[in-house]
Amino acid sequence: MRISLTVNGEHHEADLWGGESLLAVLRDTLELPGSKNACEQGECGSCSVLLDGELVCSCLVLGAQADGHEVVTVEGLAEGDALHPVQQAFVDAGAVQCGFCTPGLVVAVTDLLARTPHPGDDEIREALSGNLCRCTGYAKIFDAVQLAAERR
Ligand code: FES
Ligand code: FES
User: Fold this and answer.
1) pLDDT attached to residue 113
2) What percent of the chain has pLDDT above 70?
3) Which of 56, 57, 58, 121 has the CA that lies 20 to 30 A from 41?
């Protein structure tokens, strides 16, 4: 089947088979590898994107469900060479180690701060509970969220 969708403000068309995930469409067809494929089971959040402004695990969304809809991936957050403020906060707080979880976390934190500009610790924990990181122990990620919130 053929779908058309908007990704990071650009119109795209893609051919896919019925069971193909949005994550596969983004990475393999549209060559946007920022959304990571770690579990493909909705457990890790590394594939997080915004679908019509809603935070979703793109591995759990069928590509067909994105037909006619708007997707924002981590590639759509930076403006040219300038990092998005959340990306910059992750760098400045030292919240990136292997970096595999980082794109999903950046998208999730961007979503959180859009909804809750100055979240408390519990709100941060709740918002990021679907994003797993095997490296950082999460403390630096918390620091990055707070830094990004302070800078808003
Ligand atoms: S790859 Fe989608 S939640 Fe892990
Ligand atoms: S930095 Fe390695 S999984 Fe999070």
Assistant:
1) 98
2) 100
3) 121
Is 21's C-beta closer than 6 angstroms to any atom of ligand 1? no
Q: How far apart are CA 7 and CA 115, in angstroms?
A: 21
> Which tokens hold the place of 148?
């990004």
Taking the CA of residue 134 as reference, the ligand 2 atom at the shortest distance is: 3
Cβ neighbourhood burial of 17 (10 Å; 0-12, 13-18, 19+): exposed
Best mutation site among 55, 59, 134 for ligand 1 pocket (most ligand atoms within 8 Å of CB): 59
How does pLDDT run across 61-96, given as a tens digit for each residue? Answer: 999 999 999 999 999 999 989 999 999 999 999 999
Nearest atom of ligand 1 to the alpha carbon of 59: 2
Q: What separation in Å is there between the alpha carbon of 20 and the centre of ligand 2?
A: 26
* Cβ neighbourhood burial of 111 (10 Å; 0-12, 13-18, 19+): buried
Q: How far apart are CA 101 and CA 80, in angstroms?
A: 22
Q: How far is the CA of 138 from the centre of ligand 1 (A)?
A: 18
Cβ(136) to ligand 2 under 6 A?
yes
**pTM for this prediction:** 0.97
| Rounded CA separation 67/149 (Å) | 33
